[in-house]
Design a protein that fits this description.
The protein is mainly beta and 114 residues long. It has one helix spanning 25-28; strands at 5-6, 9-11, 17-22, 33-38, 45-50, 56-58, 66-71, 76-81, 90-96, 108-112. The strands form two sheets. A six-stranded mixed beta sheet has the order 2-10-9-4-5-6, with no helix packed on it. Strands 1-3-8-7 form a four-stranded antiparallel beta sheet, with no helix packed on it.
């Protein structure tokens, strides 16, 4: 099963985007879900995560700008990204935390540029 992220796009610096990811109930229900990002020639880094009971974690680079949330009824995880910066340009992925290789989907491209 690959988890597919959606909602990326081109946005100007200071703009906002909301990413979405749906997961099968068997994966979503008891797992911590995470958003990751990766640029070419760089490792894939954890951006934010949320446990099944709502405890969140954020990388220092996105604290105060990004908000992760989950809909436990619909099995969706979201990443609200505000005050976007050019350095947020990456391909964004969702997965469990810790991540499982078989769950990586194609990701969604986020480009922050004027």
């Amino acid at each position: 099963v690959q988890l597919q992220a959606s909602g990326g796009g081109l946005v100007q610096p200071g703009g906002s985007l909301r990413l979405s990811c749906a997961a099968p109930n068997i994966i979503f229900k008891l797992n911590t879900m995470g958003w990751y990002r990766q640029s070419p020639e760089k490792q894939r880094d954890l951006v934010a995560s949320i446990t099944s009971n709502g405890t969140t974690f954020y990388a220092d680079s996105v604290k105060g700008r990004f908000t992760i949330s989950r809909d436990n009824a619909m099995n969706f995880v979201y990443l609200q990204m505000n005050s976007l910066k050019p350095e947020d340009t990456d391909v964004y992925y969702c997965n469990t935390r810790p991540s499982l290789g078989s769950f990586w989907g194609q990701g969604t491209q986020v480009t922050v540029s004027s």
